[in-house]
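Budget justification note: compute hours in this period were largely spent on complex prediction jobs such as the one shown. Inputs:
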Amino acid sequence: MAVNAPFYRFGLFNDEVSLIVAFVIGIGFGFCLEQAGFGSARKLTAQFYFKDLAVLKVMFTAIVTAMAGLYLVSRFGLVDLSLVHLTPTVLVPQLVGGLLLGIGFVIGGYCPGTSVVSAATGRIDAVVFLGGMAAGVFGFGEVYPFIAPWTKVTNFGVITLPGLLHVPYGVVVLAVVLMAVGAFVAAEWAEKIIGGVQPGPDSLTGSVRRFNPARILAAGLVGLGLIAAISGNPYREGRVTIATRQLARLAGQTAAHITPGELSSWLIEERADYTLVDLRTADDFAQHRIPGAQNVPLAALTDTVAPRTEKVVLYAQDDTQAAQAWILLKALGFKAAYTLAGGLDAWNNEILFPAKPAADTPGTRAEFAKRVAVAKHFGGTPRGTAAPGQNDLPALAPPPPPLLPAGKAGAAPTKKKREGC
Amino acid sequence: MSPPSTPAKSYLNPYLAGFGLGLVLLSAFVVMGRGLGASGAVNSTVAATVHALAPAHAQAHAFFAEYLGDGTVSPFKDWLVFQVIGVFVGGLLSGAFSNRLRVTVEKGPRISTLGRLVLAFIGGAILAIGAKLALGCMSGQALTGGALLNAGSWAAMMCIFGGAYALAWFVRRQWL
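Corresponding output:
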């Protein structure tokens, strides 16, 4: 079998091992930051007074190296690029957040990663900075319920620069490399003119007449950029890569389901981070569907339904078709495919037409009142006391399917938040 | 910690340090399918602390509950938490290797130690709020998202530089 990466996504090791990987990668990250001098707040902030533009040089060299390297390993088949996690673009909060990050950086002297390195090398101000971060997170958490809707506006989903600009991925790679090298030359010029620092022997623009490491590196990166620009699309289009062992393991987990209750709260919150797919025929879909669903009949399901790193929720009338579609998407490398437990039948029974519980206590009454409110949100109505097997589903226009005994929905665990930084 | 007798080594050429950092980031993409991060670990720590002190409050709060999950897995058993522990160890190793371990408060000559510490705290708090809104900090958005050509990351990165340059003049006494 061909080597498939990202290794974790293809199930080469489990979550426990991934924590060891995280630790090792962290050591490399911390070591590089400290060697660059980023344990020092004065070295970092010198960037903003044109004394020493190391922040720009280190950051853009790292970005360009990882970008060009990732392009090559993807283009030549090792990595499935669609499985590398991308955070969604939520434009306005990200612009405001970016400004606050910059302001906090120049006031506090660090960014989160460099403050950890600085604390490790003995700086008390970095420890205080980390304390300030904790206070900021706590304060944000306390006001979050009031600003939550605002933090989700202008959500464009996952979008890359090549996708946004309609320019081939490799051409964008070359453009970023050239932009970075141009920025380095400009940075050395600014250090000389504004900061009064002469370019040293390790610089790109110094008067030294020889190949120094910086120049060799810059030339190498431009070379990689040129290769990228003519090598074509780095994504694996339509090629199926089946990791059978992982698939079997995943199929046995209830984590592959979401319950009708969870889906209803996603819909009420108007979350935009998932795609809801109705797998039934176009006729069935036209008659009755879950709001926000798009119709992709099972036979027409391909990898174009959504980006492979995005959450996809599949449903059909009951569980069977959805399970088939789920295996197909997982085999295609979709990272976050889920089925709606119990399908549309369960949605009708639990959300649209909730049955009044047999036991009448204040607790069950309050619970039922909540479910009635949710049902009304979706245009449904509650039913009388539940009587197993009795078909008393209220008429829906268009009419709902006959009521089947509601299967016990698998309880899906709440997924922990997994964000970028 | 007494100051080491040998002088600190000079910092690595920024282009070479950046190249090394880029290789670390690339290895994270290839091995894990995700990049680097730092601020997420602070979030997990704060959520766990709030949970320990006021469990009901943390569970009722959507923001903290998100980091706590369903309670079956510790919030510290998280990729970013382990990665940040690694960053600390890596920084310590590098500092020891280059004779740069010193207990100090880093500041320019024109500000008091207390003033510097107050500003460090305020800066940290502002930055943490920014990281929450931007869905990541310099490592998660600028570095990782930049290398992945993520549109929102590039927008956030430009704002990071813009915000810092815009405010730099007002806090120059702290650094210069």
